[in-house]
Amino acid sequence: MSDAETEGRGRRGRGGRGAGGGGRAARQASRSGGAKAFKPYISRGIGYFEPFNEEHLATIEYNADTVLQEIGIEFRDDPETLEIWKEAGADVQGERVRFERGMLRQIIQKTAPSVITQHARNPARTVKIGEGNSVLVPAYGSPFIRNLDEGRRYATIEDFRNFVKLAYMSPGLHHSGGTVCEPVDLPVNKRHLDMNLTHMTLSDKPFMGSVTAPERAQDTVDMCKILFGDEFVDQNCVVINLINANSPMIFDDTMLGALKVYARNNQACVISPFILSGAMSPVTVAGTLTQIFAEAQAGMALTQLVRPGAPVVFGTFASSISMQSGAPTFGTPEPSLVLYGAGQLARRLGVPFRSGGGLNASKTPDAQAAYEAANTLQTAALGGVNFMLHTAGWCEGGLAMSYEKFVMDADQAAMMGRLLEGPDMSENGQAMDALREVGPGNHFLGCAHTQANFENAFYRSPLADNNSFEQWESEGSKTMEERANEYYKKLLNQYEAPAIDEGVKEALEEYVAKKKESMPDANY
Amino acid sequence: MSDAETEGRGRRGRGGRGAGGGGRAARQASRSGGAKAFKPYISRGIGYFEPFNEEHLATIEYNADTVLQEIGIEFRDDPETLEIWKEAGADVQGERVRFERGMLRQIIQKTAPSVITQHARNPARTVKIGEGNSVLVPAYGSPFIRNLDEGRRYATIEDFRNFVKLAYMSPGLHHSGGTVCEPVDLPVNKRHLDMNLTHMTLSDKPFMGSVTAPERAQDTVDMCKILFGDEFVDQNCVVINLINANSPMIFDDTMLGALKVYARNNQACVISPFILSGAMSPVTVAGTLTQIFAEAQAGMALTQLVRPGAPVVFGTFASSISMQSGAPTFGTPEPSLVLYGAGQLARRLGVPFRSGGGLNASKTPDAQAAYEAANTLQTAALGGVNFMLHTAGWCEGGLAMSYEKFVMDADQAAMMGRLLEGPDMSENGQAMDALREVGPGNHFLGCAHTQANFENAFYRSPLADNNSFEQWESEGSKTMEERANEYYKKLLNQYEAPAIDEGVKEALEEYVAKKKESMPDANY
């Protein structure tokens, strides 16, 4: 066992310091007007919105089985995966694999866990993904960033670090995310090292790993072993990873390679058909759901064949396209119905469910961005998404990460946490004493019950301006975007890194340095 | 029977011309990118979101009965109402009235209808309010308007007419509303005449009447009789009216006077406790719901005592306040829970339910306005609001009506119509042929199923910009607010009034002119 591994494991034993860092951030966020005491994830106190009935769901399940049996799924350029399917009894012809009715469901239900505990290096930040728990995660994958000062430009590793810091400081976000933006100033084949290092050192929330090549996935696992210890990583989920299907009905060797690395190492895969309905799936809600369910089952079952019991999540990313221009659209009714349906199918299957939070097509954090993001977030929250990617920052169909929208969305995320707690029906919540004390025609502002409860009674947004028109005008008539611009800078100025064992940090930095030296820069 | 009355009734018999006017507007809206064929109201194809369980609801019902029995409700400056309560067996002491457990529920359930048909002068626009039906209605009551050209200023009758035109042209809005803005350029005691005349002549959608004095309510009923005919009005609901409680636990003589006029004439009252939680109700969700349910039952039961079977709606308007400044806040989690709970209570009681749509505290139609409005609209839609006031235009906590936000919200309203229809589970909706035709790795854009369905497959927003960044930039980098500014002006330019019988119109104008002559201008 190397020193680094010892340090990594030792680190977990000294949670106090890490938790101290987290506590400081939570207090800061609370002072800036956030939610109540930090909760590492949402544990919902209320039910789901479920617009599909039993007959609808049975029809989609039946149709998905028909797709898997008749049409099948292609697994491209990956003989090992085809071999795995053959051994499992699937019908493999060339790269096309067909499955008997119910075969994939059976494989998944036999070993896939219904809830995943993803460990954070600070145990107080460890999350549960699945069942009634929701983890809200920053947006993922934008090559551009946007802010009010600079407009839109390519993202850099400095931006990446900033978004990791902002996520760390946002009580409504439970996760550090993955590629919070693409650091395009770094070579493609080395970016993942700096991204991993950033998540591991500048935050103590859980994070996502690299999936752009199997060896980058392996780097992620190896760095996790430095941080958490070899044995701990083999027995526990410490990183979660986004495996997209190439819809329709294809998995490619890049994604399959990453999937196998993570599953073999007992780390979580989110199997996500990436769908723009009308282009990559049928133009209807039920047809899209059918395809998503077929594709997701194929990827999920594969993880269980690679390592039975490996953590896996049923993912969806579904939007519509404009049938005039082909451009993707967000926050509209049809993708909302797809999300609700996919959540119901995931719960029937008994696996955790991933979908998107604050999706939108707007180029700036204006009203369009907010309407569409709020529609998506509400749907994801009420539809029971367990791992809510893209909750904060996403603009322009995912092409740009907005600093201002990041803090706006994080504010909305914290509200969702409060909503999903549900009503307080305790005696204090019922407030009969207040009603008796005040009576007709008086006000409740000064009554004993209000005095005892006012501090945490209502969610307080740090960004909403609820003042009078006159006061707002006297303060410069600022839009929410302008206030958010000031707010994210204030947060970044207040940022303090969570404590980390220096030995672990050095070992991680050494790993990154050595890896970088071992290969030439490449942009593929 | 007067000529006017004959004309009014005759008018209803010649629906073709009115429908022609409506059809033209619907076609225009459709060309501008609206929804599918105009539907006069939403008939939901999916269920409700119901976060309160049986035990929660029974507790709130019990507590509301306790409030009614122990504390009671005050009916101020209205001896007639106190007399009505005495006759009904309530405990009347001074102006305070107390009710035995279950008494009000029994009165309401005995005669109040579960669904109201509100007739429009164009039968194709007649709406159903209650059960699985939702009617989306413009905002109500702002003294100011805002647009991008002028900023914020006092509203005029010209603005009022503009909003009535915009509502008429919005396929997502089913109703012309009431005081869509306060025409403050007209004397207070005569405004209602011009407002009624505008709704009756510039639109053929259903509308709301005046409640600011009993005699103004009577004017509304009398004008309705000109439009619809005496007998028709006595037997059918043709106007719906907003009766606010003076929370906590007070009804005043103005509102009671209007309530009695409308109920006696068989016209609909929306009994709405107007609540800023923490000031006018306890600082908790359950306490606020208890008070709302007590107050609303008192008002609803009164309508049934005045005229058994009179149409009545359980209304709520609940927001929170900032416990720092006392300012109202909107789109936050606690009022959402109140709305969901109130909807569940209304359905258990068996009466139609009213709440708000696009509420927000923002001074401009920026991201704050949109986040808060979308949160409110989603809650209202999923919570089963039957009469959704304030769906379009509301800004600044109701103080200002925004032209730009009006068309943005109307767009969102149309999306809600699509969402609540639910999924199409027909064979065409299941799209198995498309999946078979396309198969792995191809796209669905050109397939036969897509070609047959693309026109109505997805909701098309006339305001969302889904184009590339480069195209958006080349078109002037416009925010949604700027696009909405152009769009509402285009709509107003395209406006054509729906056909109306000239005789009826003249009779209405004559009524207004005579009434105005009969009294001096007054600003109270």
Secondary structure topology:
The structure is a homodimer of 524-residue chains.
Chain A: H1 3-13, H2 15-31, E1 42-43, H3 54-71, E2 73-75, H4 79-88, E3 91-93, E4 96-98, H5 103-111, E5 115-118, E6 127-130, E7 133-138, E8 144-147, E9 151-154, H6 157-168, H7 191-202, E10 207-208, H8 214-228, H9 230-235, E11 239-245, E12 250-251, H10 253-264, E13 268-277, H11 285-306, E14 312-315, E15 317-321, E16 328-329, H12 333-349, E17 353-356, H13 367-382, E18 387-392, E19 394-395, E20 400-402, H14 403-421, H15 427-430, H16 432-438, H17 448-457, H18 469-474, H19 480-494, H20 502-517
Parallel strand pairs in A: 2-12, 7-18, 8-20, 10-11, 11-13, 13-14, 13-15, 14-17, 17-18
Antiparallel strand pairs in A: 1-7, 2-4, 3-4, 5-6, 8-9, 15-16, 19-20
Helix pairs in contact in A: 1-8, 1-20, 3-11, 5-11, 6-7, 7-8, 7-20, 8-10, 11-12, 13-14, 14-19
Protein name (chains A, B): Methyltransferase
Region (Disordered) (chains A, B): 1-34
GO molecular function (chains A, B): methyltransferase activity
Which strand-content bin applies to the residues of chain A? 15-25%
- Report the sheet with the most strands of chain A, covering strand number, pairing sense and barrel closure: 10 strands, mixed
CATH topology name of one domain in chain A, in short, is TIM Barrel
Number of E-state strands of chain A? 20
Shape-level CATH architecture of one domain in chain A = Alpha-Beta Barrel
Global structural class of chain A: alpha/beta
CATH superfamily of one domain in chain A: Trimethylamine methyltransferase-like
- Chain pair sharing the greatest interface: A-B, 126 and 126 residues
Inertia-based shape of chain A: globular
What is the chains' assembly state? homodimer
Distance between the termini of chain A: 34 Å
Low-confidence stretches of chain A: 1-36
Q: Please estimate the helix content of chain A.
A: 40-55%
GO molecular function (chains A, B): methyltransferase activity
Pfam family, one (chains A, B): MTTB
Family (chains A, B): Belongs to the trimethylamine methyltransferase family.
Organism (chains A, B): Aestuariispira insulae
